[in-house]
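Fold it.
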Amino acid sequence: MHVDERTARELRGLARVLVRSGYADHAGITAALTEAVQEDAPSMDATALVPLLLGEAVMDLNQEAVGWPAITDPDRLDDVLGELAALGLVVVRYTTDHHIARKALESADDPRGLVFFTDTDVWHAVDFGMLELKLWHPDTANVAPGEPLLEDVLALLHQHDLPAVFDEGRIEVTLNWQRRVNL
């Protein structure tokens, strides 16, 4: 039994973005890959294939990380998110959807707003060098051009050498997704 080249490429790609995200843990990555193998390659033994996919993705990342700068763009993004949290914004990283982010906002005491991104936003950043940040007011309304909250967030991103623009209701942050992982 074997997997066709397209399916193999898709499974390797999934392992790659899950590992490189830097947010998923070993168990979460294993579960997601196992589900993908069972759906996309049911003739394969997931318990044998998943560790190979995971190991290959980790080895590739570790080889590449040797040449990364000491402080990477995701490190600077973490600094920005920490500063935003200190300013009273609710920060939600790598969530599966906006409902979870909204619940975090609604449960916060007197938040100034919400900034969040999803797992698929990170996967896009891994492959394409652009992360979409969503920025909401405390009432869950999107920010609009010219509003102080948006201007503050954009200024902070720029101060940390993260080019960002507001486009169609979201902040597009240009970055190299180089996040060190420990799996």
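The beta strands are 89-95, 113-118, 130-136, 164-167, 170-174.
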